[in-house]
Amino acid sequence: MRGSAYIWKRIVFAVVTVFVALTLNFILFRVLPGGPVSQISRVPNASPALKQALTAQFGLDKPLWEQYLLYLQQTFRGNFGVSYMNRQPVLDNLIEAFSNTIPMVAAGTILALTLGVVVGVISAVRRGSMTDHLSTNIAVLFYAFPTQFLGMMLLIIFAGVLPSAGMNDPFAIGGSGWDTFLDALKHMVLPVTTLALTLYAENALIVRSAMLETLGEDYILTAKAKGVPRRRLIRAHALRNAMLPIVTMVAMSLGAVVTGSILIEVIFSWPGIGRALYTAVLKRDYPMLQGGFLAITVVVITFNLIADLIYYKLDPRITT
Amino acid sequence: MLSDKEFSLSSAFAIQDLNIWFGANTGNVRAEFHVVKNVNLELAPGERLGLVGESGSGKTTTILAAMGLLPANAEVSGRILLGGTDILHGGEASIAPHRWKDIAMVFQGAMSAFNPVRTIGWQIAEAMQMHGVARGVAMTRRIGELLELVGIPADHAVRFPHQLSGGMRQRAMIAMALACEPRVLLADEPTTALDVMVQDQVMKLLVRLSKELNLALVLVTHDLAIVAQSCHRAAVMLKGEVVEQGDVGDLYHRPKHEYTRKLFEATPDVFTTPEAPVRTSPASKKTEPASPLLDVRNISVSYPRVRSFRDMLRGVEPEASSAVENVSLRVDPGEMVALVGQSGSGKTTTLQAILGMVKARAGSIHLNGRDVTGLSSGQWRPLRRQVQMIYQDPYESLDLRYRVRSTVEEPLRVHGIGLTAKERDGLICAALERVGLTPVERYLNRFPHELSGGQRQRVAIASAIVLKPELLLADEPVSMLDVSVRAGVLELLDELRTDARMGILMITHDLSTAAHYADRIAVMHQGRIVEEGAAAAVVRSPKADYTRALLASIPHPDPNRSTLADLST
Question: Which of A288, B49, B410, B488 places its Cα 20 to 30 Å from the Cα of A304?
């Protein structure tokens, strides 16, 4: 199989997956109890006529396949409906929520990745040493911490020193651009730290075992025999090969990061996608939930597609 | 003949009084294993020395010490002399400048000795960059020259290791070893994983290079015949010691040490094949049985290619590549048939088709007169008792968490044989006794890691014969074993053939083994059987060109009967 064929195959696969997710999303919310009509018409003295009018307004009286086509059509136009809660288009809500979540999650993930790779490589290279034991055990400890527990602990300890809630100080409006930026940065410290600590441990353990495996390969001995110095040996030979399993596993966990941020966002009152979904569940805001789930699905699929493409760049064997 | 005795007097490379200990910390007790004991070797420029021994004899450890590549828990004493200077005394600092520049190495597994994600050219370039030998355009040109020197087109430098065949990869490895123009080349089992014809080519290449470049070559191998054909002298290692060292001719004709003699005897020699195969008991009377045990007629097997995206869009079924084409085989009770061929010739696929693991596209397979072609796995289950399989690698075919008893007992449980534990115990003990693991009590409760390779293979055989099958399928049953235990396992199979009248179909790449033990040989090439006949007839008067080529590439253990004759000039 040629390279372009591989890429095409992955892209088609991703698109098909998105379609399946769209369809499931459509079915799921029609199977669930508590439809939108009963939700909105839950006012005192709601007449059957009102219900009927609502049903017609939402197009729920049409046959299912027509609803499905309508749903697809509207989805592609970016119309995810209107949130029951704030009467804003779901799309606008989602864009706002994601634009709040992404900086925090990106910072946390990058930090976790860097820390995980560095710690994992060091413990693999110094296998069996004090450093290795210490870092592996610390990683296992953080891996075992539930996010909410770690978040709470950080909140309790640092609440006085660092801002504990929200994205910015509502009373600091009017300061210079630099002050606003610093303020936002301060607000990010705790949630980002929580995310990074819970994620880095998993990464470190994955990197360590992948590195240990590649360090035992014959080509490492060959490279040593050629006179390749230690640093280059680790970077150009061992890590380059260890990256293959790491990319797959990190990409798989990245999807979970977005949803995993629910806990962090709730704890630190971060107005992101996680908290938006959390409130939507509590308020039974179906359009918002539906849109949110779809968005998350697309994010997960996109990350996996990116992983496949990176894999293609990293592993020459993939096209055969 | 290798009689070019015009070595310059100064030695190129010498190992003096080399001792190596491996330390292991088990709790508070530090255990030390003395793995290499007082080894002395010396090579003149252009001289080739074979370092022969079985696994665990310390031969690889010896040459790794010369490269300074032993793990940190190894302790080394002695001297490694490179043109008269000791490079061992200063540790890493004194070895590093010479490594690969003066003394280079060709590693065993050409498959895994290259980094899979870098091109061949990149990896050869790295060797030169590390030692500042060449750079820029000159380096690119040199890579091309090196590849051409070993018979690879220069433009293959941009290829990745997986895009080269096994033989090509080993050639590329040799090219990389020569990148910095070393004076000494250490080759660790350079041809072990290769087919006999490719092995022949690679060995010829090594000998030619050693002559042209005046390279001192240490060839580490377990195969005496290769050494006999390509080296001037040989050193035989046993349990960390060199027990005998000398001219290859002397070793073959006048071995002084018992072990050397044993090694030569255990090396099967296709050229001295007797008329009839070696028999431990008188040959069975040939009464043509009414029906053969296994009757394979004209089977063809093909593997579907992966459907490409374009095929999917067009709705085209991909072309099937044919693995086995029109193969017919027959095994009678009490007969051993050898299926010989290179890797990729379709031997294993044929075996899998017989077992019903892959579907035959055409043809029929009869077992004891019953048509088993295309049976479902459920229909196969009761028949499995009649056909048992012995695998190549006893290190992988045994479950590491099963004791010997459980391994042998499992097939009994699966087939519901032996109602009581006592009854099963009786069968297990009988099977273990049959394969020569006596006294049985000593082995019953052992785990695989407590057994040697030969013993493991015997356990695997025991678990196959405990069901008293009529047909045994053996897939390269001895290729992973040391030379000296191979004969024992093969003789065991031979006894099962004569005593229990089992029919045995043995896959092997080794024509010599086949010639010695099988009644009939079928030679397979590119999915077809190119020649079939009585064992002695096939090796003495081969009809097919391919069989002749195969025979010509087998190294002869007698150095005087050179199969590399064209090189002695």
Answer: A288
Q: For A186-233, how does the pLDDT look when each residue is reduced to its tens digit (9 = 90+)?
A: 888 999 999 999 889 988 999 999 999 999 888 999 999 998 988 999
Cβ neighbourhood burial of B9 (10 Å; 0-12, 13-18, 19+): exposed
> Which structural domain range is residue A188 located in?
98-282
Of A1, A5, A227, the CB nearest to B130: A227
Residue A295 lies in a domain: no
Chain A residues 240-259 within an 8 A CB cutoff of chain B: 240-241, 244
Q: Provide the token pair at A77.
A: 């136009």
Homologous superfamily of B333-386+472-554 in CATH? P-loop containing nucleotide triphosphate hydrolases (3.40.50.300)
Contacts of A217 in chain B (CB under 8 A): 112
Number of structural domains (chain A) is: 1
Residue A142 placed within a domain = yes
Report how far residue B68's alpha carbon sits from residue B80's, in angstroms, rounded to the nearest whole number.
Answer: 10
pLDDT in tens, B482-533: 887 888 889 899 998 988 889 999 998 888 888 888 999 999 998 899 999 9
What is the biggest distance separating any 2 CA atoms in chain B, rounded to whole angstroms?
77
Check A228 against B113: CB less than 8 A apart: no
Distance from CA of B167 to the nearest CA of A (A): 17
CATH number at residue A268: 1.10.3720.10
Instruction: State whether B117 and A314 contact (CB < 8 Å).
Output: yes
pLDDT tens digits, A146-197: 888 988 898 899 887 888 777 777 666 666 777 778 888 888 899 999 999 9
Q: Which amino acid is at B557?
A: P
Do B115 and A219 lie within an 8 Å CB cutoff? yes
CATH 3.40.50.300 residue spans of chain B: 1-102+184-267, 333-386+472-554
CA distance linking residue B423 with residue B419, whole number of Å = 7
How many helices (H) and strands (E) in chain A? Answer: 13, 0
What kind of architecture, by CATH, is found in domain B1-102+184-267? 3-Layer(aba) Sandwich (3.40)
Of the pLDDT bands very low, low, confident and very high (cuts 50, 70, 90), residue A40 is: low
pLDDT digits (tens, 9 = 90+) for A240-249: 999 888 888 7
Q: Which residues of B touch A316 (CB under 8 A)?
A: 116-117, 119, 160, 162
Residue B309 tokens, joined: 């995206």
Task: Tell me the C-alpha distance between A133 and A130, whole Å.
Answer: 5
Instruction: In whole angstroms, give the CA distance from residue A223 to residue A234.
Output: 10
Asked whether residue A80 is domain-assigned, the answer is no
User: Residue B532: CB partners within 8 Å, gap ≥ 6?
Assistant: B520, B521, B522, B523, B538
The arithmetic mean of pLDDT across residues B345-352, rounded, is 88
